[in-house]
């Protein structure tokens, strides 16, 4: 099947999972992960009305999206992969959100570079909830320290939290990962009621139905949309 058929099927599955959970289908956004897929695939998805995309690597995002932002005003790109401080300046002009904010030093660098170019940038704080190999804040205390630092980051807008569940067939472990992020969201909302923690980016092609059951507002899906990686 082509990208259009894949998109239609994934959107139907997202809507069905939301309804089963007693939620409105519109409460869950699809972020199409286009890493390792060519610009032609992104264009095809755009032609089908998919405007929200995610990329893992700065260089690939530059090559693929630099010529598309002006052509498609509704296009929104999120960076979802690990971000090095020395690449923040390069990625800021391309993205509307950095989902992989995982340390205080990176937050301060994002603020510095956003101030230089006069841009406000949305961020999601990535929390480590799975196995040791995954990135993200290791604990709530380090996460909370960064959130406190937002007071000194006027160009950074908090939008919520992100995580990656462990890659396992053990559904209980996956569900526990998502529940940990939801609990962190609730705690953050109590501590900082003036900040926006409404976005929960969790769930990928293999586990997005569980993520939606546990409160995800954005699922990051690549393979099910674009097919196997090139």
List the helices and strands and how they pair.
Elements: H1 3-20, E1 29-33, H2 39-47, E2 52-55, H3 58-65, E3 76-79, H4 88-91, E4 97-101, H5 104-117, E5 121-126, H6 140-149, E6 156-162, H7 171-191, E7 199-201, H8 208-213, E8 218-221, H9 223-226
Parallel strand pairs: 1-2, 1-8, 2-3, 3-4, 4-5, 5-6, 6-7
Structure notes:
- The protein is an alpha/beta fold.
- The chain has nine helices and eight strands.
- Helix 4 links the parallel strand 3 and strand 4.
- The mean pLDDT is 95.
Overview features:
230 residues; alpha/beta; 8 strands; pyridoxal phosphate; Pyridoxal phosphate homeostasis protein
The backbone outline, from C-alpha atoms, is globular
Biggest β-sheet strands, sense, barrel = 8 strands, parallel
How many DSSP-defined strands? 8
- Provide the helix percentage: 40-55%
The number of helical runs is: 9
Radius of gyration: 17 Å
Q: Report the mean per-residue pLDDT as an integer.
A: 95
The run of helices and strands is HEHEHEHEHEHEHEHEH
Order of strands, main sheet, comes to: 7-6-5-4-3-2-1-8
Provide the β-strand percentage band: 15-25%
Produce a short descriptive summary.
The chain is α/β, with parallel strands linked by helices and 230 residues long. The chain is built from nine helices and eight strands.
């Amino acid at each position: 099947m082509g990208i259009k058929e894949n998109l239609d099927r994934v959107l139907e599955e997202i809507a069905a999972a939301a309804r089963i959970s007693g939620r409105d289908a519109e409460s869950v956004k699809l972020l199409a992960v286009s890493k390792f897929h060519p610009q032609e695939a992104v264009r095809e998805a755009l032609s089908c009305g998919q405007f929200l995309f995610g990329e893992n690597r700065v260089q690939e995002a530059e090559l693929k999206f630099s010529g598309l932002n002006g052509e498609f005003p509704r296009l929104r790109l999120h960076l979802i992969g690990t971000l090095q401080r020395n690449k923040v300046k390069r990625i800021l002009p391309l993205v509307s959100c950095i989902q992989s904010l995982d340390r205080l030093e990176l937050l301060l660098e994002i603020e510095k570079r956003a101030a230089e170019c006069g841009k406000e940038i949305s961020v999601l704080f990535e929390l480590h909830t799975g196995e040791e190999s995954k990135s993200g804040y290791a604990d709530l205390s380090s996460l909370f320290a960064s959130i406190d630092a937002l007071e000194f980051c006027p160009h950074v807008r908090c939008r919520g939290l992100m995580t990656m569940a462990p890659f396992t067939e053990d559904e209980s472990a996956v569900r526990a990962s998502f529940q940990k992020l939801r609990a962190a969201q609730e705690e953050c909302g109590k501590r900082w009621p003036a900040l926006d923690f409404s976005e929960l980016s969790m769930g990928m092609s293999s586990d997005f139905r569980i993520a939606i059951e546990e409160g995800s507002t954005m699922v990051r899906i690549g393979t099910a949309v674009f097919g196997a990686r090139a």
